[in-house]
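Below is how a single chain appears once it has passed through the pipeline. First comes the sequence as given, then the structure the pipeline wrote out for it. We keep one example in the README because the format questions we get most often are answered faster by looking than by reading.
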Amino acid sequence: MSRQSHRNQPDTESAQVTASPPLPPQFEEVVYRRLAKGDVIKEYDLMKHLVTQGFTQFTPSLDPLALFRGHFLLFHLLYRLQEKWQNEAKGLLCIHTLEICLQPNRKSLENTAFALTEADEIKRYYLDYNTFLTTQAQDVVNLIEQFWQSFGSQPSQSLRYSDAEITEAKQCLKISTPLDDQTGSQVVMKQFRKLSQTHHPDKGGDAEDFHAICHAKEVLLSLWSR
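Resulting structure:
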């Protein structure tokens, strides 16, 4: 059900649907202990740590909907802790897929990418628990498709790559068969998505490896933009 449809319903029903659950027992304590030392941790590594502490809802999954729900729930809870810890003067919780940390005070963040004025829209998105409740598998598929399209649109027709670069790109994407005009681009995208499950930073992969397969994808897709 869409957000718009909830807004058209009585306020009492909408409140029941969108009300956030209590913080899981011990969740705040576990996260605070992990971040209080000043370490910077990736989302994937924090999720793995939480699983070792008994929070099985954050177990990594290759199922798109399960992956989205685990990610959304973690960020929803972290943004709630961000507000709580600010009010308690514990510091400012910085939230990003590649960098989660606890800064001692807001002043230290004035010149960083974590400025709250730039993150308000993202924060509102994750604090809306209705998104967690209503997002379905097809919604996640659509989000992923939009990401791939925006992240790596096809190069312009004037862009050319050498035979050596094309061969290297095929090796990077582990493509050993010839690419024909009918199915070549589909093969490239299928292999790219497969490797992204391993190399995407959100899934614990290395950022440089992920950029390499993204570049390889662009090189090979340029074959059909000439």
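The chain has two domains: 3-137, 154-224.

See the next section for the split statistics.
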